Automatic annotation (TrEMBL):
Residues of the active site: 71
GO MF term (any one): ITP diphosphatase activity
Broad EC category: hydrolase
Reaction(s) the record says it catalyses: dITP + H2O = dIMP + diphosphate + H(+); XTP + H2O = XMP + diphosphate + H(+); ITP + H2O = IMP + diphosphate + H(+)
Subunit structure: Homodimer.
Binding annotation for Mg(2+): 71
Name by which UniProt lists this protein: dITP/XTP pyrophosphatase
Cofactor(s), names only, from the UniProt record: Mg(2+)
Organism field: Streptomyces desertarenae
Function according to Swiss-Prot or TrEMBL: Pyrophosphatase that catalyzes the hydrolysis of nucleoside triphosphates to their monophosphate derivatives, with a high preference for the non-canonical purine nucleotides XTP (xanthosine triphosphate), dITP (deoxyinosine triphosphate) and ITP. Seems to function as a house-cleaning enzyme that removes non-canonical purine nucleotides from the nucleotide pool, thus preventing their incorporation into DNA/RNA and avoiding chromosomal lesions.
SUPFAM superfamilies linked to this entry: ITPase-like
Keywords noted in UniProt: Hydrolase, Magnesium, Metal-binding, Nucleotide metabolism, Nucleotide-binding
Magnesium recorded as keyword: yes
Cross-referenced CDD domains: HAM1
Length: 199
């Protein structure tokens, strides 16, 4: 069964392939890049769930195939949940991970350790061409380092130290990150629903 990964973020594609392959579902996963004629969705939602549904729905309608999407970000408690849904464009240019991370660190420079709590959030959405839709959310709580560490992962991984971990997400192996991540949690919860609705 073909399932479109409605994302153009190569890091997400890699993580989703690993997470979904490990669920035992027999899926033929293709990235959104296989459908260049489908225009990018404007992320006009006010929540991760709304944006994930928008992305999945757009690909499913345009292609006539089931699609899953991921909308995700970092929510910092002392910033009232920001950058949140604006995580990918926090410093202005969409997808400039280094600029986003540098700006956030500067904004938190006066915040002491006990107040540097945050979580990654991921909404995982499934949309079928017939209009059936499901969305679930996964979280990864932790604290934010003052100095980036590690070269794995992407985005804010070098500064998020998961609860109960002494390393940042960027210092974890891909398998270790997927085992605890917001994305892993969300898509492992969605997997049986995918199996049921596509089966
Ligand atoms: P698509 O919309 O095409 O899927 P995108 O990169 O624009 O790709 P989002 O709008 O969901 O995706 O933005 C996600 C941002 O949140 C991403 O740019 C990172 O800055 C951050 N983020 C999400 N998951 C992350 C993770 O696992 N580790 C570190 N940062 C993450
Ligand atoms: Na987004």
């Amino acid at each position: 069964q073909r399932l479109i990964l409605a994302t153009r973020n190569a890091h997400k594609v890699r993580e989703l392939e690993a997470i979904l392959s490990a669920t035992g579902l027999d899926l033929d996963l293709v990235g959104a890049d296989a459908y260049p004629e489908v225009p990018d969705v404007k992320e006009t939602g006010t929540t991760f769930a709304e944006n994930a549904l928008l992305k999945a729905r757009t690909l499913a309608r345009a292609t006539g195939l089931p699609a899953v999407a991921d909308d995700s970000g970092l929510c910092v408690d002392v910033l009232g949940g920001a950058p949140g849904i604006f995580s990918a464009r926090w410093a202005g240019r969409h997808g400039d991970d280094k600029a986003n991370l540098d700006l956030l660190l500067a904004q938190l420079s006066d915040i002491d350790d006990p107040h540097r709590t945050a979580h990654f959030a991921c909404a995982a959405a499934l949309a079928l061409p017939d209009g059936t839709e499901r969305v679930v959310e996964g979280h990864l709580p932790g604290t934010l380092r003052r100095t980036p560490a590690g070269s794995g992962g992407f985005g804010y991984d070098p500064i998020l130290q998961p609860e109960g971990e002494s390393r940042t997400c960027a210092e974890l192996s891909p398998e270790e990150k997927n085992a605890i991540s917001h994305r892993g949690r969300a898509f492992r919860e969605l997997a049986p629903v995918i199996g049921e609705l596509l089966g």
